[in-house]
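User: Let's play a game. I give you a shape written as tokens, and you guess the letters that built it. Ready? Here's round one.
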């Protein structure tokens, strides 16, 4: 069994910034109300950008950062619930845009906000059976297109963006040890599909989802640490899905994680679903807070309901 490590990250977000003040002009809310309950101050929404253009921007940045060429990629997965088309998939569109090899698996994966973690685990499995050692994993969503602007409880939360990782697979590297799970309950967080008879707009029972997340995050952390054999002290950095600043702060307090070992960017981006975790990882890499040799515990949760965690390390390609 071979394991994977991150070789390079990249990100891409729309140019248009929507502040809490902008939201207050659209629905009955205020900057203070949004910030105090969520930690969100701004979010980015697409105007001229498309889902495909965000994926391509993030992927090109990750390829450049990693020093890996498109021809070396052995598989491509895009984690998303808001692709431009059902067919061709976002991953197939990305294959065309980047000039990835035509003889590799490229497909989309739907696990909402936990999608990037599901995709990392899936990529590890794929590369174990591939003659190529590099994979491209993208988390991207354009949630502004499926936001219900009449629902002030949800429309304030979501932003658009994409984050990408080039991963490398080698014999002797540890598995990311992904701990993944789901519980089918469409009542708590729902996005209706084709021919459902409903508009394809997000609906969510925010209080119940918050309670679920508060329980799911520590459960995932405990399981990942137990499975990997690592202790909290063995982890260099902790990355959480950016859904609500209070959820992250609760986890940090529970595990006594010092401020220098976790990071929040929800104030700038809001909840970007599958893009949330890779956006954090990409910013941390640019800041030099993670890099070759870093061991990062990553935890996510989302609609489905889904949850997951893993330990991912970074490499510069040298053994």
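Assistant: Ready! My guess for every position:
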């Amino acid at each position: 069994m071979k394991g994977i490590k991150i070789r390079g990250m990249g990100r891409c977000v729309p140019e248009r910034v929507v502040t809490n003040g902008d939201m207050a002009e659209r629905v009955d809310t205020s900057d203070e109300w949004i910030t105090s309950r969520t930690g969100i101050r701004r979010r980015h929404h697409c105007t001229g950008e498309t889902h495909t253009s965000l994926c391509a921007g993030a992927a090109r940045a990750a390829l450049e950062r990693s020093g890996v060429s498109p021809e070396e990629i052995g598989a491509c997965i895009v984690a998303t619930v808001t692709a431009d088309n059902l067919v061709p998939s976002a991953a197939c569109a990305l294959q065309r845009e980047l000039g990835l090899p035509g003889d590799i698996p490229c497909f989309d994966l739907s696990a909402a906000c936990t999608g990037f973690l599901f995709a990392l685990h899936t990529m590890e499995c794929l590369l174990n059976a591939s003659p190529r050692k590099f994979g491209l994993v993208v988390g991207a969503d354009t949630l502004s297109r499926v936001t219900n602007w009449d629902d002030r409880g949800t429309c304030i939360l979501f932003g658009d963006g994409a984050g990408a990782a080039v991963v490398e697979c080698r014999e002797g590297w540890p598995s990311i040890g992904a701990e993944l799970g789901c519980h089918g309950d469409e009542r708590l967080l729902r996005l209706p599909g084709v021919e459902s008879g409903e508009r394809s707009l997000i609906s969510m029972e925010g209080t119940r989802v918050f309670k679920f997340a508060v329980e799911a995050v520590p459960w995932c952390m405990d399981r990942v640490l137990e499975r990997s054999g690592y202790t909290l002290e063995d982890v260099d950095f902790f990355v959480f899905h950016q859904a609500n600043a209070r959820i992250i702060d609760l986890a940090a307090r529970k595990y006594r994680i010092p401020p220098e070992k976790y990071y929040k960017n929800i104030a700038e981006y809001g909840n970007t679903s599958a893009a949330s975790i890779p956006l954090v990882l990409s910013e941390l890499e640019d800041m030099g807070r993670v890099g070759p040799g870093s061991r990062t515990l990553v935890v996510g949760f989302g609609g489905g309901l889904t949850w997951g965690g893993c330990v991912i390390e970074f490499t510069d390609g040298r053994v």
